[in-house]
């Protein structure tokens, strides 16, 4: 029996580079154990720091193939899991109970598909193996309930007449002002009332061990948005824009706002990037080209992804079954899941919040 070289095993494992963080598994601290027994069987435990269910199979295959080429190795068993930590928030604000990380999804203006992106991002993070919640902070135009298929008039349960139990929608924990008031009630509120209501929804909802809470922010960069950005303990922000010059201008304002309050911008999602004809599949950049790339380069942030202008995205979301759950194998769902992995990977490079919630572990592949 050939003696298996540990150095050769480690070198084989190092051949795999993470596609989102561009580091090998040792640089990431992702190799938890690497053992070879007398029969030539090698067992590896890998734990990635971000939601990564969609790439776990490929990682397992590539690492197995590399290890099988090492002299003396007869069989390989690779276990792939993930561990999501709590990361620092601005001004060391106290964490929200039951929530590790809050990601704000924002846009400088309305009509760019911010809520659609927020809902699909939340569902994509969940599909990648994370525990996820969503809070609709868009008080004047709450749409998350409709997008998630929550029946009109359905109200969240309460505990002790003080706390809301989040609604379950496609496996997400959800809460929204729309669940507390009727659709036909216009919110004629001044700024302080709005931010007060959002803080109440955030803090008085019994979130249950969330890795990520996605907050769908109100559009714009005014007083309400600034107050929320100062009061909500946000780990990172995602800016949604379209390629139009006017939307990009407003997207830049959004980035500036988060920078002013020390919230890291994780990246930009360019919505309605190209129009795909539903008849012939022809792609055409109706709203211009390359805007998201320009804004990401100008502000030294990441272009997280580009999403097409496609009728099915609107139809599915309006029907209460967003693309990620309606057609999980579609190109659109694949793009959202790629964005979700990028967001999680980007967040994993931040400084840890040691006073935050306990990390969660989940094994995604055996």
Task: Please render the helix and strand layout as text.
Blueprint: H1 6-14, E1 31-36, E2 41-48, H2 53-68, E3 75-84, E4 99-106, H3 114-127, E5 132-136, H4 144-147, E6 158-159, E7 163-164, E8 167-169, E9 172-176, H5 191-203, E10 210-216, H6 223-231, E11 236-241, H7 245-260, E12 265-270, E13 275-276, E14 283-284, H8 291-298, E15 303-306, H9 311-318, H10 323-326, H11 331-347, E16 360-365
Parallel strand pairs: 2-3, 4-10, 4-11, 5-9, 5-10, 11-12, 12-15
Antiparallel strand pairs: 1-2, 3-16, 6-7, 8-9, 13-14
Percent of sequence in beta strands: 15-25%
H and E order: HEEHEEHEHEEEEHEHEHEEEHEHHHE
CATH architecture of the largest domain: 3-Layer(aba) Sandwich
Distance between the termini: 27 Å
Total number of helical segments? 11
Can you put this structure into words, describing what you see?
By secondary structure, the protein is an alpha/beta fold. The chain folds into two domains: 6-84, GMP Synthetase, Chain A, domain 3; 90-357, P-loop containing nucleotide triphosphate hydrolases (Rossmann fold, 3-Layer(aba) Sandwich). It has helices at residues 6-14, 53-68, 114-127, 144-147, 191-203, 223-231, 245-260, 291-298, 311-318, 323-326, 331-347, and strands at 31-36, 41-48, 75-84, 99-106, 132-136, 158-159, 163-164, 167-169, 172-176, 210-216, 236-241, 265-270, 275-276, 283-284, 303-306, 360-365. The protein has an eight-stranded mixed beta sheet with strand order 8-9-5-10-4-11-12-15, sandwiched between helices. A four-stranded mixed beta sheet has the order 1-2-3-16, covered by helices on one side. A two-stranded antiparallel sheet has the order 6-7. A hairpin with a 2-residue loop joins strand 8 (167-169) and strand 9. Helix 3 crosses helix 11 and helix 5 runs parallel beside helix 6. The longest helix has 17 residues, at 331-347. It is elongated.
């Amino acid at each position: 029996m050939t003696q298996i070289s540990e150095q050769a095993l480690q070198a084989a494992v190092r051949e795999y580079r993470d596609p989102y963080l561009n580091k090998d598994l040792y640089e990431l601290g992702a190799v938890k154990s690497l053992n070879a027994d007398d029969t030539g069987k090698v067992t590896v435990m890998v734990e990635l720091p971000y939601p990564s269910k969609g790439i776990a199979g490929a990682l397992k295959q590539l690492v197995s193939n590399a290890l099988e080429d090492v002299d003396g190795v007869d069989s390989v068993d690779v276990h792939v899991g993930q561990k999501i930590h709590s990361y620092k928030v601005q001004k060391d604000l106290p964490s929200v109970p039951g929530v590790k990380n809050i990601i704000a999804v924002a846009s400088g203006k309305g009509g760019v598909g911010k809520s659609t992106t927020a809902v699909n991002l939340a569902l994509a993070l969940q599909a990648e193996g994370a525990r996820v919640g969503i809070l609709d902070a868009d008080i004047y135009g709450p749409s998350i309930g409709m997008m998630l298929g929550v029946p009109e008039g359905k109200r969240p349960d309460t505990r002790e007449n003080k706390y809301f139990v989040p609604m379950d929608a496609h496996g997400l924990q959800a809460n929204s002002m729309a669940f507390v008031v009727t659709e036909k009630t216009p919110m004629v509120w001044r700024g302080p009332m709005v931010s007060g209501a959002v803080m109440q929804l955030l803090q008085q909802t019994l979130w249950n061990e969330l890795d990520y809470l996605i907050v769908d922010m109100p559009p714009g960069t005014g007083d309400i948005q600034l107050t929320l950005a100062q009061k909500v303990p946000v780990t990172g922000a995602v800016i949604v824009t379209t390629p139009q010059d006017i939307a990009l201008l407003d997207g830049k304002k959004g980035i500036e706002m988060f920078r002013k309050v020390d919230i890291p911008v994780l990246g930009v999602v360019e919505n309605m990037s190209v129009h795909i004809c539903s008849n012939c599949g022809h792609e055409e950049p109706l709203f211009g080209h390359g805007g998201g790339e320009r804004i990401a380069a100008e502000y030294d942030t990441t272009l997280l992804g580009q999403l097409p202008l496609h009728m099915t995205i609107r139809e599915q979301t309006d029907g209460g079954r967003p693309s990620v759950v309606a057609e999980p194998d579609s190109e659109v769902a694949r793009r959202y899941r790629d964005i979700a992995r990028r967001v999680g990977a980007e967040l994993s490079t931040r400084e840890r919040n040691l006073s935050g919630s306990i990390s969660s572990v989940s094994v995604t592949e055996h």
